[in-house]
Design brief:
Elements (H helix, E strand, L loop, with lengths): L1 E7 L4 H10 L6 E7 L6 E5 L2 E5 L2 E10 L4 H12 L7 E7 L13 H4 L1
Antiparallel strand pairs: 1-5, 1-6, 2-5, 3-4
Helix pairs in contact: 1-2
Length: 113
């Protein structure tokens, strides 16, 4: 079991969800977060002066999957989120020690679904 965490652009969320659903990945959590990567925020002109805001709105997806769904999930995120521009995001894949379905008490692969 793995926990996949992806940080993507907010406007790409619908594309990513569509790609995930097309690969039978239906369980995900979505959070709005702020942060920056290599682009180090946004630079804008304000009253003739260059202003830099170092935090950008992003979307954080958390998806718990069984091992056989890791590759399709990652491919779906990349397909849905990639623009080819700086700031497309990152994907992190972490081992998931345990999963427990609260309603039934099921554990492990069965609990993820």
């Amino acid at each position: 079991m793995k926990l996949i965490i992806a940080i993507i652009q907010p406007h790409m969320l619908e594309n990513v969800k569509k790609e995930l659903y097309s690969r039978d990945v239906n369980l995900l959590s979505v959070n709005e977060v702020i942060g920056h990567g290599r682009q180090k925020g946004v630079t804008e002109m304000y009253r003739g002066h260059r202003e830099t805001g170092n935090m950008l709105r992003k979307i954080r997806l958390e998806i718990a999957v069984n091992d056989n769904f890791v590759k399709p999930t990652v491919e779906a995120i990349i397909t849905g989120a990639r623009t080819g521009e700086l700031g497309d995001g990152k994907i992190f894949i972490l081992p998931l020690e345990e999963c427990i379905r609260i309603r039934t008490g099921e554990t492990g692969r069965v609990a993820i679904g």
